[in-house]
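User: Good morning. I'm curious how Isopentenyl phosphate would be positioned relative to this chain. Could you predict the structure with it bound?
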Amino acid sequence: MILIKLGGSIITNKEKPLSARRKTIEKLAKSLKKIDEPIIIVHGGGSYGHYWSVKYDMHTKEKKYDLRGIAIVKNSMIELNKIILDLFLKNKLSPYCLPPTDFMMGNKPIQKKIKEITKIAKSGLVPVTYGDALWFGQKKTYILSGDKIMTHLAKTLKPRLVIFALNEDGLYSDLRSKKLIYELKGEQPSISENKMDVTGGMARKVEEATKISKMGMNVFFVNGNKSERIVKAVKNRKFEGTLFRGKKNV
Ligand code: IP8
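Assistant: Good morning! Here's the predicted structure, ligand included:
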């Protein structure tokens, strides 16, 4: 089984509020169709969820946020999710919509529900979930990042491979020259923060990828604009991107 995160900056135009990159999503769908293993998809919020979370000052910390904000963030994520589901369907994938409320209770994953996701994926359906605004309890809510969902799913489902599709070639050791880091073996590189991203952008991805690789799984960062690279990574062909090598393989 392969666990794949489609980052918000690849599926939406982050410069323009509420704009999905439909052509890119279609190309991604066509590539995903070529994978002949069960897959699970998680997607980010991009210029949908993050746009509204910033406007309503909502973050990953559990707090009593504005009720309108919660409703609007959730609604925008449904809208983006629907675009992805429609384009997956159009490209012959059979997505199975799985809002995170389906397998989260407060900030804890419901293990029984998570385990069931494997069975759904093995049936040939493609479970699709996403980062969202979630109820925590006692009138508090929080933003659950899709990156965090990746760690929850990886921990229980132990996929063969974990992939983060980004709007970059991978992780750079130097931002100016865009010198790519090919492989990391357990060490966590430091990344500067992105203020436009309430869940922490690249820094969060690196943190979760490092955690997952320490659980023993290989994690790849690949450029989602070149979606054939996802297929190559899965089929063990020449890989282009950054590999966080699973601890057990080091
Ligand atoms: O883009 C957060 O998901 P992410 C989604 O994976 C929202 O961090 C609602 C901002």
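The CA atoms of residues 8 and 30 lie 18 Å apart. The longest strand covers residues 132-137.
Let me know if you'd like a different ligand tried.
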